[in-house]
Input
Amino acid sequence: MTFDLAHIWAHMSILSKIIAGCLFLMAIASVGVVVERFIAFAKAASASRSFVAQARPALENWELEKIGEIAKKHKASPLAGLFERMTSKYLEGVNQKGSMTPIELARNEATRRLEAIGAELRRGMTVLASVGSVSPFVGLLGTVVGIIAAFQGIASTGSGGLGAVSAGISEALIETAFGLMVAIPAVLFYNYLSGRVSSIELALTGSVGELLDEMENNHGRESRKRVEKAA
Output
């Protein structure tokens, strides 16, 4: 028997074709998620580099309002969105005296934003996890269905033997192979993307710590200046 996909497809039962169609849809969904995440990560990295280059002078001069304005122009950057929210909360705490210090407000906002950014970075990755874990079993189900159909054909015709069974079984095993071909790349890309997300989150956490240090230093200087003026 030659390996002819058209011949194999023509001899599959309706249920086997439905299962193969499900595996094909899983493969398409996995490719879509991977392509979308690669594009999103590339855009975020480019926007973050641009934001850092433009915001560095404003940060050195401690012009928080300007940092917020620059951040609004880089919506694709998670770092820009994080800094915009933190500086906004800090300035809100400076201008409106309350029970929490500006540093505490900025720190709490950073924690909330980091959680939201983590969820956004992982958007769609549950699809890869589901495909990687389910598609081998879907392929196995297709194989079982195909073998059952092959034996039913033998029973209905009354002919048996290895030659009569081998063709049907080999066609059924294609479903398992297809399931593995879908699952293996999905698992590999899921692990790779998970590593990318973890590295991005680590970099964001470090940037948050540096900004909070700057806020504490400058807030301390501003407080001392106000005390000196009052004295």
The two ends are 97 Å apart (CA to CA).
